[in-house]
Amino acid sequence: MVDDAPSALSHSLRHGAYRADVAATGAGLRALEHAGRRLTETWEAGVKPPLSAGLVLAPWPNRTRDGRFTFDGETHQLEITEPARNNASHGLVRRREWDVAERSDSSITHTIDIGGEQGWPFALRLTARHSLGDDGLTVTHTATNIGDRAAPFGMGVHSFVRAGDAPLDECTLRLSAGVRLPLDSERNLPSGGPVPVKGTDLDFAEARSLSGVWLDTPFSALVPDADGIARQYLTPPDSAATVLWTDANFPWVQVFTADPDHDQAYPDRGRALAIEPMTCPPDALNSGVGLIVLQPGETWTGQWGISA
Predict the structure, then answer these.
(1) Which of 14, 102, 137, 296 gives a 20 to 30 Å CA spacing to 66?
(2) Could you tell me the pTM of the whole model?
């Protein structure tokens, strides 16, 4: 449950029946609940989040092949942070301390500057604002090019959703996705272009049981509702769904199942589900798919959230 005690490591938010906790490390969503019912997986404050739970992944999400990419005719070599697969994984900011720029009872804004490190000469200022309202949690991200050269950019959030205390295998999943991007089994990198999911075992347009299902899949062609928002539903057998939504600036979601049978159990839960808003799929720094290019002084903004 959310701890309302003040902490330098994390910050508690409240509005109505909603409670949240946001960590300074990685601007990570450490906990979210509604009327005492958990909507996300959590972890102990001050401890490394399991499986990067809740953390911001920028200036690229997921994996970059061999940590190498070329932009504007110049080749860059990022630090290899996933040695077993020889990839640069999940960006630069998930393990860094973000600064608090603004704080209220129901919202907090973190900020961090990056640029000038190995393989990443591009100067960017990132912000993440977590805000609670009547409709739950809204997270607003910005990225501003504070340098003097064009900068590539992509981001994601490694958000784990939860439907109260219901075991994952008793829940159903509904996704508003039309395509998936195939990944190779050895390096989790794209092995082809997007393929339709309709009629396949990865078609979740209608709610399907998650019993025994394992996923580590980028989905796109998200179908928005009439308000322009795309929604994904994790539904337990005996109560309302946990809903993760994204605006049009997050056209991808990576769906990942933490699973003991794949040597990636979530502590004290075993199987757990991440639905990760992403601006682009894996290896976008090389493929260019969904890659954002920010000119000097330009700002990108995107939103996502979770509600009961």
Answers:
(1) 296
(2) 0.96
Closest by CA position to 108, among listed 127, 125, 91, 93: 127
Q: What totals of helices (H) and strands (E) does the chain contain, helices first?
A: 1, 27
Rounded alpha-carbon distances, angstroms, from residue 195 to 122, 160, 176, 285: 33, 25, 15, 20
Which pair of structure tokens corresponds to residue 162?
């939860």
The residue among 133, 74, 61, 128 whose CA lies nearest residue 101 is 128
Assigned token pair, 38: 């958990």
For 132-158, write each residue's pLDDT tens digit.
999 999 999 999 999 999 999 999 999
Q: Which pLDDT tens digit goes with each residue over 219-260?
A: 999 999 999 999 999 999 998 999 999 999 999 999 999 999
Burial code (b: 16+ CB inside 10 Å, e: under 16) for 187-209 equals: bbbbeeebeebeeeebebeeeee
Q: Over the stretch 46-102, which tens digit does the pLDDT of each residue have?
A: 889 999 999 999 999 999 999 999 999 999 999 999 999 999 999 999 999 999 999
Of 126, 123, 90, nearest in space to 110 by CA: 126
Question: Considering only CA atoms, which of 45, 39, 40 is closest in space to residue 3?
Answer: 45
Structure tokens at 163: 């439907």
Question: Comparing C-alpha atoms, which of 58, 28, 119 is closest to residue 294?
Answer: 58
CB atoms within 10 A of CB 59: 22
The answer for residues whose C-beta is within 8 angstroms of residue 124's C-beta and 6 or more apart is 59, 113, 114, 115, 143, 144, 145, 146, 147, 151, 153, 294
Total residues found in the chain within this entry: 308
Q: How many CB atoms lie within 10 A of CB 99?
A: 12
Write the DSSP assignment of 224-259 as a string of letters. Answer: --TTS-EEEEEE-SSSPPEEEEE-TT--EEEEEEEB
* DSSP secondary structure letter of residue 96: S
As given in the structure block, the two tokens for residue 176 are: 């508003």
> What are the phi and psi torsion angles at 286 (to 5°)?
-100, -45
